[in-house]
C-alpha cells in the first residue's frame, strides 16, 4: 500500500481559485476527505495532485517520492472526476482502455475487467453500450476504469453527485467497503459533508484555498477549531452576545453559563450541533437557558422539527416531547446534550491542524494563513491558559486506564438552567453549572461511535444525466487532451 502526502502545495487551475501552501498526509490504505463549499479550491487541488496542472510551489509525495514534476500518466494515480467522460463503445471497451495504456498483458485484461466490474456492482455488463447506461451506471464504470489498472492511490471528485438522494447512504457504505477491501489510499473531494462522514477516516476542511482544520474525522467533527469550521460541519449559533462573568448574554435569546476560567471576553458565542438539540416546554426546566418562539412546525414522520426564532436567527430543533406538535404560541426552550456546546470568542478565523494535538474546543479565532502554531496571536488559547487542561483524546486502541479528556464545553440539557447574573453581580456557585461527580464534565471526549452505521450496498438506479458582532482523467487516457477539455468546466 502507498501513502500520499501534499506538502506546501500552491497553485491554481485555469479560471479557478488559488490554493495556498496546503499540507496534509494520507496514510496507506486510508480514506481522507477534502471538504469545502463551492469555490473552496477542491478541483484546483485535485488537478495539482494528479498532474493536470503544474504547482507554483510545493510537493506531491507518493510513498515519500516527490512526483510534482512527473507526467500525470506516470504517477499511477486513479482519478474519477465528477463528470468523467465515457468513450464510445461498450462497457468493456471503457474499462480495458486504461489496462492497455498501462501495459497489462492481454491474458490479464479480462480478469481485471471482470474484477473491477464486480467491485462496483456491474458484473455481466461488459457488452452493454455505454450510451445505454444511466448516470449512476456511468459513474460506476468510471470508477471501475480507474480501479482496473490497480492505481497506487485514488482521487474521487464528488463520488455521490449522480446518485439518487435516498440511495446515497447505501452507496457510500458500499464504496467505503470496496476501497478498504482492495485496499487503496483514497482522497475524496466533496462539498457534501455526508460523503466524508459516510466514508472518510480523516477530514480536511478547505475554504478560500486554505486548509482551516485537518485531523481524524471524529475529532474535527467534535472539536471544530473556529466558528467558521463549526458552521461548515453543521453547528449552529445557539447564543451570541456579551460576556458577563462566566455567562454569555443575548437579549431576546437568553443566557448560557460557561465554566469559570475559560478565556472568553467581549463578545462570544456558544454553538451546538442539531443532533444534540431538542425542543422542550419552557416550563420543563430542562432548557439550556436559550428560548425561542415557533415560526414553523414541520412533520418528519411521527415526530416534528421546529423552526424557532432565537434573537435575529432561526434555529431548527427536534420535538420529541410528545407525538403532537406544541401550540404555536408556546415558548420553547432548547435543551442541549451535556458536553456538546462549543464556545468561541467572536473574531476572524485562522487555519489550524489537529493531526497530532487534542482538539481546541474553545479558541480565539484567527485569519487563514500558511503558518501553524508559531503564528498564533499571543491571546490564542494555549496550554498555560487558566482553562482546564485538555489531554490527548482517548483512543479506542489505547490503554483503558488512561484518564479521560476533560470536556472543555458546557451542556445543560438535563438540568434546570441557572438564573443569569444581574449586571455587575457575582455568579454564585451551584445550580445546573456544577461539575459532574468525579470532577469531570459529562460527555467529555469525542465519541468515535457517534456516526451511525451505514447500510449494505443497493443497486442504484437514476435518470440520465442579538448583540455581538459575527465574528480525469482516468489512468491511460490522453491526459493532455483531457486537460484541455476541462479548461472551461466550473472549478470549485
Please indicate the count of domains.
Answer: 2
What string gives the helices and strands in order?
EEEHEEEHHHEHEHEEHHEEEEEEEEEEEH
What is the CATH domain class of the largest domain?
Answer: Alpha Beta
From the spread of the alpha carbons, the general shape counts as elongated
How far is the N terminus from the C terminus? 29 Å
The strand line-up of the biggest sheet is 6-7-8-3-9-10
Beta-strand percentage range: 25-35%
Helix content: 10-25%
Instruction: Output the radius of gyration.
Output: 25 Å
Number of helices: 9
Average pLDDT rating: 76
Structural class: alpha/beta
Task: Sketch the major β-sheet.
Answer: 6 strands, mixed
What labels would you give this structure?
alpha/beta, Rossmann fold, six-stranded mixed β-sheet, 21 strands
Report on this model:
- The structure is a single chain.
- Helix 2 (91-101) runs parallel beside helix 4, helix 3 (106-119) packs across helix 4 and helix 5 (168-181) packs across helix 6.
- A hairpin with a 2-residue loop joins strand 17 and strand 18.
- It is elongated, with a radius of gyration of 25 Å.
- A six-stranded mixed β-sheet has the order 6-7-8-3-9-10, sandwiched between helices. Strands 13-12-11-14-20-21 form a six-stranded mixed β-sheet. Strands 15-18-17-16-19 form a five-stranded mixed barrel.
- The chain has two domains: 4-222, Rossmann fold, CATH 3.40.50.300; 235-349 and 389-445, no CATH class.
- The chain has 492 residues and is of the alpha/beta class.
- Mean pLDDT is 76; it is low at 348-417 and 422-492.
- The longest helix has 14 residues, at 106-119.
- It starts with a strand and ends in a 7-residue tail after the last helix.
- The chain has helices at 42-50, 91-101, 106-119, 135-147, 168-181, 193-199, 217-222, 227-232, 479-485; strands spanning 4-12, 18-26, 31-35, 57-62, 65-66, 77-80, 153-157, 185-190, 202-207, 210-216, 236-244, 247-250, 254-257, 267-272, 277-281, 291-300, 303-310, 313-319, 332-336, 342-345, 362-364.
